[in-house]
Each structure stands twice: as structure tokens, then as C-alpha cells.
Amino acid sequence: MEYNDQMKNRVKRMEGQLRGILKMMEEGKDCKEVITQLSAVRSAVDRTIGVIVSSNLVECVQEAEQNGVKTDELIKEAVNLLVKSR
């Protein structure tokens, strides 16, 4: 799978958010603020997983169809990846 710049930028943004959260903790910021930021990172991770799995699924299904392979198992595997990530 090829990871495009948009996917990589999502991860870089999350990295920045996590560094910011660590700084907030070191500065003794209010726990509500820290939790809010942690929740935002968790949502960003979930969205990024969805983007990667869906992109991969599209590529795999298209390739399988071109090669005359059934796509049922590929779809089940993608759904399982999404379920495990939750």
C-alpha cells in the first residue's frame, strides 16, 4: 500500500497534538483540558485508521476483480481490521 501525503500529514498532526498534551501535563494543566485533547487525538486516530483501511480495501478489491478473484474475504478482513481498532 502506498501512503499518500494526506495520510502522513494526519499522523504528523497527531504527533504534534500528543507533544502538546505532554507539555500540558508537565505544566500541570487542568485534567479536563488534557482529556479533551486526548479525546481529539483518539478521534483522529480512528479517522486515520478508517481512511487507511478504506483506501486499502478499494485498491485490493479492484486488483482482485481484475484478476478474477472473489472479493468476499478481502471485505471481511477489512471489516475485521476496523472492528479490532475499536
UniProtKB/TrEMBL annotation:
Short name of any one Pfam family annotated for the protein: Trns_repr_metal
Highest taxon of source: Bacteria
CDD domains: BsYrkD-like_DUF156
Protein name as it appears in the record: Metal-sensitive transcriptional regulator
Organism: Sporosarcina soli
